Amino acid sequence: QAQLMESGGGLVQPGESLRLSCAASAKSFSFTTIGWYRQAPGKQREMVVLGKRYGSRNYADSVQGRFTLVRDNVKNTWYLDMSSLKFEDTAVYLCYAESSDATYWGQGTQVTVSS
């Protein structure tokens, strides 16, 4: 029933920052888990960050200290704040949510880091 819609992807140079957004048709605090995955060309889909409703966020080692998950319950939206971007961050980023009985995926937004 819930639908997720990403936005904010684009072309950015190494070292710069970018914010991705995920808007949910359901209230974000109704999910038990929210977060982001990504899939780079020729690579497997990998977890970027997952956050439990009442727990701490779990970040991939490759983005630890550079990416931050932010939630806005008023707007039913969560964000991925990305800084110090690297070439290897280039990927399709997909927002993700989990409820007690289902998982939800966005269609993805392209992030390209290039000089």
Could you describe the 3D structure shown?
The chain contains no helices and eleven strands. The mean pLDDT is 93. The termini are far apart. Helix content is 0%, strand content 51%. It has strands spanning 4-7, 10-12, 18-24, 33-39, 46-52, 57-59, 67-72, 77-82, 91-98, 103-105, 109-113. The protein is mostly beta strands. Strands 2, 4, 5, 6, 9, 10 and 11 form a seven-stranded mixed beta sheet that branches. It has a four-stranded antiparallel beta sheet with strand order 1-3-8-7, with no helix packed on it. Strand 5 (46-52) and strand 6 form a beta hairpin. 27% of the residues are buried.
Unreliable stretches? none
Assembly state: single chain
Give the averaged pLDDT, no decimals.
93
General shape = globular
Q: In percent, how helical is the residue content?
A: under 10%
> What profile does the largest beta sheet have?
7 strands, mixed
What structural keywords apply?
115 residues, seven-stranded mixed beta sheet, four-stranded antiparallel beta sheet, 0% helix
SSE layout:
Layout: E1 4-7, E2 10-12, E3 18-24, E4 33-39, E5 46-52, E6 57-59, E7 67-72, E8 77-82, E9 91-98, E10 103-105, E11 109-113
Parallel strand pairs: 2-11
Antiparallel strand pairs: 1-3, 3-8, 4-5, 4-9, 5-6, 7-8, 9-10, 9-11
Summarize the structure.
With 115 residues, this protein is mainly β. The protein has no helices and eleven strands. Strands 2, 4, 5, 6, 9, 10 and 11 form a seven-stranded mixed sheet that branches. A four-stranded antiparallel sheet has the order 1-3-8-7, with no helix packed on it.
